[in-house]
Design goal:
Layout lengths: L2 E10 L6 E5 L5 E11 L5 E7 L2 E9 L3 E11 L4 E6 L4 E10 L1
Antiparallel strand pairs: 1-8, 2-7, 3-6, 3-8, 4-5, 4-7
Length: 101
């Protein structure tokens, strides 16, 4: 069994909250270990995120020029997705985890 730490997603959010950010590959289990959401704008924004179809954050406010840190250990099996989006494209997601093959 090989484990590979990796960045699951890094980039700007879209304004569509159901945007797929990551899909667990076939024959793979992924453990999401932490998520950082950063708002680079001078005005507040909101974000929404779901893991495997279960919402973990719904329209959460994020102040201007600030970050939210989510520390978790969530297992995703093959084809499970991470979806998310924000009220502005100035919101960025950084999602880290480990893939197990």
């Amino acid at each position: 069994m090989a484990t590979t730490p990796k960045t699951l997603f890094r980039g700007a959010a879209t304004t569509t909250v159901g945007t797929t950010l990551y899909t667990t590959p076939a024959s793979t289990t992924t453990v999401v270990t932490n998520i950082i959401i950063t708002n680079t704008a001078a005005s507040a924004a909101t974000f929404t995120m779901a893991l495997a179809g279960t919402t973990i954050a719904t329209t959460i406010a994020i102040a201007s020029l600030s970050s939210v840190f989510i520390d978790l250990r969530q297992v995703l099996v093959a084809t499970n997705t991470i979806t998310g989006g924000a009220s502005a494209v100035t919101v960025n997601f950084q999602i880290a985890g480990v893939e197990i093959v």
